[in-house]
Amino acid sequence: MNILIIGAGFAGSVCARELAESGHQILVVDRRDHIAGNAFDIKDEYGILIHQYGPHIFHTNSERIFNYLSKYTEWYKYEHRVRGVVNGKEYPFPINRDTLNQLYDLNLTEEQATEFYEKVREPKDTVKTSEDVVLNSVGRDLYEKFFLNYTKKQWGLDPSELKAGVAARIPTRTNSDDRYFTDTYQAMPLHGYTTMFENLLNHPNISVKLSTEFKDVLNDDQHFDHIVYTGPIDAFYDFKFGHLPYRSLRFEHEHLENTEQYQSVGTINYPNDFDFTRITEFKHLTGQKHSSTSIVREYPTDAGDPYYPIPRDENEKLFKQYQALANNEEKVTFVGRLAEYRYYNMDQVVGAALNAVDKILGQK
Ligand code: FAD
Ligand code: UDP
């Protein structure tokens, strides 16, 4: 088959490689001037490897997905750590026993931390919203200190207006584990994401056309037996049911001369101050040694490239309308964070792409 793939991010590139391996001819197009989608990384003008679209930390519990990507990259072992600033002081985040001890000047054991949460939590019969999730696990004071304003800033919505899954990404801990993720596999591509994508796409059956809108390719005379679409699903259908809301970010990159290290950990969250949500210092993530450093601040916004589907019932309803059309397409497969309107992490997108390929090849 001649297959057109729209988007050179995780969804598109994994599909491209797998379909190429099965003997098909693949054309990948992306409107951006680079591969790797939102995982794109590049050395900035000072030689520091930065993530253009914000910090991307790879983590998964899936051996299959880790082994799959390991064919295209070696790894740098990295466990992400985050601290949240409240009233000018940094605390371990997600909230753990040390957060409680430092914040409230206590000396709780693990058992006492469990009792502490029991005392302060506001139990909910049904946990529907992100507000429910947090109040149900840590109660109002911690909710207001760490979650309420961060969420309002990130989404432009109150946590009560967002589905439970958003805040449920963040665990609550009774021990002192201060890692952001506890997945079995946590690592960064040793030579960066972009190099990993170059390896994925390096196959005699794959050609890549950048700075190309997919509709322009369809207008050419070329015939395609199948299309894999990884862009926003509403755009594919010319927004016929209306725009699906996606949240965007403005990234403010900064380089700091003569500063070997800017902050204590990879990411510092600022729930209650500033218009940005967090600052990430890339050298923590990549292990790069350099006498100066580069950081990024993330400013949430409605306008701009779509980065996050917004998990709310009303959006899910609108998505379902588009999905019904998508389900009837025999020659088009929709896969990825924007096409499936799912708050996927990178590993989940790899999994979704591998499943999509099985379907296209008639193996499922
Ligand atoms: P994308 O990477 O968005 O790729 C889609 C591509 O399609 C884009 O390159 C786009 O240009 C192209 N495209 C769209 N429409 C068209 C068109 N009409 N014509 C041509 N090309 C088109 N995940 C993690 O696991 N860990 C993290 O730490 C993490 N951090 C993140 C931080 C931020 C700030 C963001 C925004 C996301 C983060 N993610 C993280 C999620 C991760 O970025 C996504 O899961 C993953 O990149 C999605 O891959 P994708 O291929 O579905 O989409
Ligand atoms: N969150 C919060 N305070 C924080 C960090 C996260 O309230 O300090 C909430 C917020 O709603 C955020 C969600 O938890 O959108 C998920 O956080 P995560 O760090 O997983 O977001 P991502 O890295 O995907 O932007």
UniProtKB/TrEMBL annotation:
Residues 145-343 form the UDP-galactopyranose mutase C-terminal domain. InterPro entries: UDP-GALP_mutase, UDP-GalPyranose_mutase_C. Its EC number is 5.4.99.9. It comes from the Bacteria. It is an enzyme of class 5 (isomerase). Keywords: FAD, Flavoprotein, Isomerase. GO terms for molecular function: UDP-galactopyranose mutase activity. Its cofactor is FAD. Belongs to the UDP-galactopyranose/dTDP-fucopyranose mutase family. This is UDP-galactopyranose mutase.
